[in-house]
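It would be a great kindness if you could assist me with a short task in structural biology. The full record is reproduced below for your convenience:
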Amino acid sequence: MDRRIFGRFGAAAFLALAGSARARAADDRRQHRIVVQVSVNDPALMNLALGNIENIARHYESTGESVLIDLTAFGPGYVMMRADTSPVKSRIADISQRYSFVRFSACQNARRAMAAAEGKEILQIAEATDVQAGVIHIAELQEQGWSYLRP
């Protein structure tokens, strides 16, 4: 048997194993994606959700792993995104400033419903990102493999 052929097969096997080891290492460093739901107008629950986000952010920063976090507020929980009545707007601003990988998604269906009920325009906090429907946004993130947390 020609050793050069064996050598080529040996090299190919080694490269395949090395490639799969690199793929496993990349999987170990995969980006974590977590969506947090707030659908209740309860300052204690809002603060619990924000505390969870801070704990998650600190954990993954300390391990050097990548994470994306999306807090989605809808229904009565949309109150946390209101510029006029949010009991947690300063905490959201602080988290947003410290952690660029945290997004605050605000359900526009809830915003329109509150505006209609109150007969006035509802202004949002600057950190809010509009999503058409909070429940659909969460469902679509889950379909994309995001982990779901409801404090």
